[in-house]
Each structure stands twice: as structure tokens, then as C-alpha cells.
């Protein structure tokens, strides 16, 4: 059995996956037409090109434009439930046995849904997906950079009733360049006090100081991306000392021009130097990537052996925010 076959059969864990960046293109097109939205695109083939990134963007800001249409159709309970269930089905096809799916409830209330209704619809979708496809999952609720503080606090307060009932963590997402983590200190002080695990997008867009700030100020247990940790050797020490895991997403980082080519991605360097790293897709649709394909890329372009890929999966199991019973279930899959 060659390594591609081994990777295909390997049980996988995905820790950094955005719901709105992983909606099936066909589903977005169907639901837009059903809603009567005027997209100005004459065919699905033409439309599908704007839902993903072909190669590299100039920046993360440009990359985020691909989320506009998916969010337009994620404004009612039926659609949210369907999209969540379909994502679980898609994960099952690539051998993922456990996933942590993140989304920002505040982005899905423009048509009258409450924060609670949004969260409940997504929980219903992932639970139905587990029954149908056997993939276990939990949710990470994103606070959004640049949004009013009270809105993000409201998400954390309302989401607390679902802790350990489908929700496990809080995150800070969005435009990192213009909104540093300290602006959201109050949000994550509250999240920690309520019992959320915490992961923070940091060091994705060149501001390596945000990694340390996220750990010290917003209580991050994991860091989303952490691309630029190499700019400051002291960050290595903090990551190791506090056992902080990096949720790395190589193809997404290539798309946002954080690296010039896949071979330049620092995941290999971090892994070799003993930093806990995991590999993830970030946005399956926007980046046109699956976890299976990302693992192939690590092997072919960065020289990860099959044994090292297994170690990445073990890192993901240990860093996951699920309960001990679920962790044992995942380990037994190996």
C-alpha cells in the first residue's frame, strides 16, 4: 500500500474549519435561486468561480470576499441545518472521524433569527450528520473583529447555554491586521469565566506579536494559524512552555499570500523544532481543499512521512476540545 492509499484510509481529525467557508457550491447556487437573489451570473459554472480562490489573493481581506454569497443563504434555520449536515457528510468522505466547526452566529441574524436559533440550527445539523455518517463534531463560536463589543459579548452569553451540548469553544476571527486581540479582552475574559475553551486567530497576517497577546490577554489554548511565530524566537518558548497548539492551514495561507509557495510554509520547521502543530483546511470551498489532499501536499511538498502525518493527527486528538470519552473513541479509531 503506497502512502496515498494509507492517507486515504487514515482516520482524520480537523480542528480549524469554517462553516461558511465550506458550503457546497451547488448548495449556495440552489439556495440563492430559491430565494430569488439576483447574482448577475448566468450559469453555475460562472458563479462557482467567485466562491473560491484560484491561486493567491493580495491579502486576507480579499480572501474574505468569497464568503459573501454563502452567508446570504445562511439566514434561516432550514438552510443552516442543511449546510451543517452536508459538511459532516463531506468530512465523512475524506475519512474525518472528528471535527471542530467554527462559525460566527452574529453573521446569520440579518433575516430575523436569534443567536440561539442560529446555534440550535447548526447543532441540529451536525447531530443529524453524526447519525447519518458517523462523524462526531463540536462547534466553536466566533466573535468577530471590528464588530461592537456588546454584540460579541452577547454571542458568548447566549452560547453558554450550549456548552458541552454541541458547543465547546470561543474564537476571535476576521480582520486581524486592523483589530488586535487586546480589543476583545472583555469578550474572552467572559468566555473563560463561563467555561469555554478558547482558540484565537493570530499571527495569520504578519503580526507575530498577536500570538503572545492572544495567549496572555485573551486566554488562548490554541492559536489559529500562527504563521509568523518564527519572527520571534521568544514565541517558540511560550508555545512550548504553555503547550499551545497551532492550527495550521497551509493551502489557505498560500491563498492569502502568507507564503509565496507551499514549500515555504513553516509547518515543517515548527514540527521539526518540537512545536505542537496540526494540519487543517480552514475553508474547504474557498480554498478548494480537503484534509486528505492537504495531507498529500505535506508528504509530496514538505517531505512529511506517513509516521509524521500520524503524529500530526495525534497532536490534533490531544489538542481537541472534546470530552475525554470522545477522545478515547477517536483514539480507538487509530
Summarize the structure.
This protein is an alpha/beta fold.
Secondary structure layout plus pairing:
Elements (H helix, E strand, L loop, with lengths): L2 H7 L2 E7 L6 H11 L8 H5 L11 H4 L4 H6 L3 H17 L2 E8 L11 H19 L2 E9 L4 H11 L7 E7 L11 H10 L2 E6 L6 H8 L5 E4 L7 H9 L3 E4 L1 H6 L11 H6 L4 E3 L11 H12 L3 H14 L4 H10 L1
Parallel strand pairs: 1-2, 2-3, 3-4, 4-5, 5-6, 6-7, 7-8
Describe this structure in words.
- The two termini are 17 Å apart.
- By secondary structure, the protein is an alpha/beta fold.
- The protein is built from 16 helices and 8 strands.
- It has a single domain (3-332), classed as TIM Barrel.
- The radius of gyration is 19 Å and the shape is globular.
- Strands 1-2-3-4-5-6-7-8 form an 8-stranded parallel beta sheet, with helices on both faces.
- The longest helix is centred in the middle third of the chain and has 19 residues, at 115-133.
- Residues 11-332 form the Adenosine deaminase domain.
- One of its GO terms (biological process) is adenosine catabolic process.
- InterPro entries: A_deaminase_dom, Ado/ade_deaminase, Metal_Hydrolase.
- It holds the Pfam family A_deaminase.
CATH topology: TIM Barrel
Count of helical segments? Answer: 16
Stretches where pLDDT falls below 50 for ≥5 residues?
A: none
CATH architecture: Alpha-Beta Barrel
* Total of domains: 1
Radius of gyration: 19 Å
Within CATH, the superfamily carries the name Metal-dependent hydrolases
Q: What is the terminal separation in angstroms?
A: 17 Å
Shape field: globular
CATH classification, class level: Alpha Beta
* Percentage beta strand: 5-15%
Amino acid at each position: 500500500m503506497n502512502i496515498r492509499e494509507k492517507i486515504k484510509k487514515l482516520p482524520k481529525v480537523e480542528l480549524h474549519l469554517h462553516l461558511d467557508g465550506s458550503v457546497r457550491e451547488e448548495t449556495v447556487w440552489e439556495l440563492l435561486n430559491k430565494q430569488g437573489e439576483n447574482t448577475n451570473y448566468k450559469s453555475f459554472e460562472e458563479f462557482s468561480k467567485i466562491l473560491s480562490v484560484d491561486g493567491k489573493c493580495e491579502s486576507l481581506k480579499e480572501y474574505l470576499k468569497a464568503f459573501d454569497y454563502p452567508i446570504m443563504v445562511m439566514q434561516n434555520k432550514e438552510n443552516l441545518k442543511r449546510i451543517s449536515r452536508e459538511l459532516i457528510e463531506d468530512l465523512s468522505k475524506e475519512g474525518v472521524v472528528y471535527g471542530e466547526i467554527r462559525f460566527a452566529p452574529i453573521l446569520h441574524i440579518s433575516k430575523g433569527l436569534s443567536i440561539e436559533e442560529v446555534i440550535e440550527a447548526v447543532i441540529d445539523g451536525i447531530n443529524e450528520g453524526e447519525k447519518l455518517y458517523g462523524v462526531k463534531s463540536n462547534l466553536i463560536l466566533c466573535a468577530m473583529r471590528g464588530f461592537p463589543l456588546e454584540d460579541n459579548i452577547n454571542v458568548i452569553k447566549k452560547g453558554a447555554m450550549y456548552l458541552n451540548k454541541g458547543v465547546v469553544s470561543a474564537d476571535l476571527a476576521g480582520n486581524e491586521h486592523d483589530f488586535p486581540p487586546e480589543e476583545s479582552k472583555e469578550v474572552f475574559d467572559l468566555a473563560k469565566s463561563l467555561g469555554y475553551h478558547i482558540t484565537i486567530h493570530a499571527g495569520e497576517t504578519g503580526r507575530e506579536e498577536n500570538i503572545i497577546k492572544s495567549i496572555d490577554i485573551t486566554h488562548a489554548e490554541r492559536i489559529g494559524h500562527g504563521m509568523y511565530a518564527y519572527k520571534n524566537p521568544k514565541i517558540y518558548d511560550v508555545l512550548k512552555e504553555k503547550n499551545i497548539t497551532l492550527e495550521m492551514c497551509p493551502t489557505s495561507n498560500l491563498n492569502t499570500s502568507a507564503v509565496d509557495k507551499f514549500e515555504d510554509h513553516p509547518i515543517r520547521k515548527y514540527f521539526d523544532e518540537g512545536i505542537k502543530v496540526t494540519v487543517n483546511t480552514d475553508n474547504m470551498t474557498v480554498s478548494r481543499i480537503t484534509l486528505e489532499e492537504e495531507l498529500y501536499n505535506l508528504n509530496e511538498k514538505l517531505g512529511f512521512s506517513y509516521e509524521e502525518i500520524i503524529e500530526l493527527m495525534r497532536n490534533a486528538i490531544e489538542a481537541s476540545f472534546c470530552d475525554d470519552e470522545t477522545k478515547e473513541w477517536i483514539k480507538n479509531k487509530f
